[in-house]
Write a structure and sequence with these properties.
5-stranded parallel β-sheet; two-stranded antiparallel ribbon; 9% strand
């Protein structure tokens, strides 16, 4: 078969039978798709810094300074607060951008060269609190992040003894634990107390005290505040939600940055305060979700080869993200968009029951919510 004067086989690599399937996916994309994907990748990797990034970096500098002050105090002068590690919490709602902000700071700091590489001598390691989060599972998660080969179930005391020894062996002085709110899932005060004691033990280790960065949902603050010894060693950074009308200028800059500066699209829509209100409502005020919705809308415009970003692109992005019916699309309805529940799955079209006639479906809309 000939297409455009060439045999179809002329377009195939000679070793197609041995071609890696993932490489084949990349090769078979059209030049247009490749070009759009490159723009979207650039769009998604772009970081919009705000004042809270400056505050976070300031607090991390203070945490590092407290370590240096303790290290420089010699002999009898290393007493009181200089004998123990300190802690910093970074909290906010889901999607607030905490993890991305921390990763960016960790990656760019010269004193954390090699961050993320288990073979490096970076003095900071990040671990994820598992779900469920028992003291044993948290200890094992930290060990894995430190590169320790956990090949069997460890006893709780053994796991944490190994955590202390491995931190010292790797010369890790700073430990970041993300999603620490998982420690509260058990609702078992004994288990929660054990996690608190384990973290306190890291701060108070006489031979190798560790400085902690603990991130997660707002409940992390109350989790730590209930232990007075941890509370007095801890400072806090809170990533608050965006609100109207205070944050309209920032959201306007966000739309312009991602649409015009990074996506090459017209961004006149950034002047539309109604669109900004809908965007904040759709994201429940979450900074990170606002950015994701903007990126998705710009991606929609790029894929359609549209020159200007519009509310239709936001509507399509929101529908794809939530699966909502048209009547519950914040960017589509003419009025009462602020009454639409955007907190979860409410408003998604459900499949009909098995005994229902074909074509029927059960719908939820904002009118149901107002009833």
């Amino acid at each position: 078969m000939v297409c455009g004067g060439l045999s179809m086989s002329d377009n195939l690599p000679t070793n197609v039978e041995n071609e890696d399937p993932l490489s084949r996916i990349r090769r078979l994309r059209s030049p247009e798709r490749v070009q759009v994907s490159a723009k979207i990748a650039q769009l998604q990797s772009a970081y919009f810094g705000t004042e809270r990034d400056n505050l976070l970096e300031l607090e991390i500098n203070m945490l590092f300074d407290s370590f240096s002050e303790a290290e420089e105090a010699e002999g009898n002068r290393r007493v009181g607060r200089l004998r123990e590690g300190r802690a910093l919490t970074v909290t906010g709602a889901s999607g607030a951008g905490k993890t991305r902000a921390l990763d960016r700071i960790f990656m760019k700091r010269e004193d954390l060269l090699g961050y993320g590489d288990r073979e490096s001598d970076c003095p900071l390691v990040s671990a994820m609190a598992p779900s469920p989060c028992t003291p044993r599972l948290l200890g094992e998660s930290i060990l894995k992040a430190l590169g320790y080969p956990v090949e069997r179930k460890l006893e709780e005391n053994v796991a944490w003894d190994l955590v202390h020894k491995t931190l010292a062996l790797r010369r890790v002085k700073f430990l970041h634990i993300d999603e620490l709110q998982h420690a509260l899932q058990s609702r078992n005060p004994v288990e929660i107390g054990k996690v608190q004691d384990s973290l306190k033990g890291l701060l108070q280790d006489k031979d190798w005290p560790v400085w902690l960065i603990l991130s997660g949902l707002p409940s992390v603050r109350s989790f730590l505040a209930s232990d007075i010894q941890i509370r007095r060693r801890t400072r806090h950074v809170v990533f608050r939600d965006l609100k109207l009308p205070d944050d309209i200028p920032m959201v306007r800059r966000l739309i312009t940055f991602y649409a015009k500066d990074k996506g090459g699209c017209g961004a006149e829509i950034a002047r539309d305060n109604d669109l900004i209100g809908r965007l904040l409502h759709a994201a429940n005020g979450s900074f990170g979700v606002v950015i994701e919705l903007i990126q998705d809308a710009v991606g929609q415009a790029l894929r359609l080869s549209d020159t200007d970003l519009s509310s239709e692109h936001f509507g399509a992005a929101y529908a794809a993200r939530t699966g909502c019916i048209r009547e519950n699309n914040v960017f589509v309805v003419a009025t009462d968009w602020d009454l639409i529940d955007t907190s979860g799955l409410d408003g998604i079209e459900e499949p009909p029951p098995e005994d229902a006639p074909i074509g029927s479906s059960k719908k939820k809309n904002k009118k149901n919510k107002k009833a």
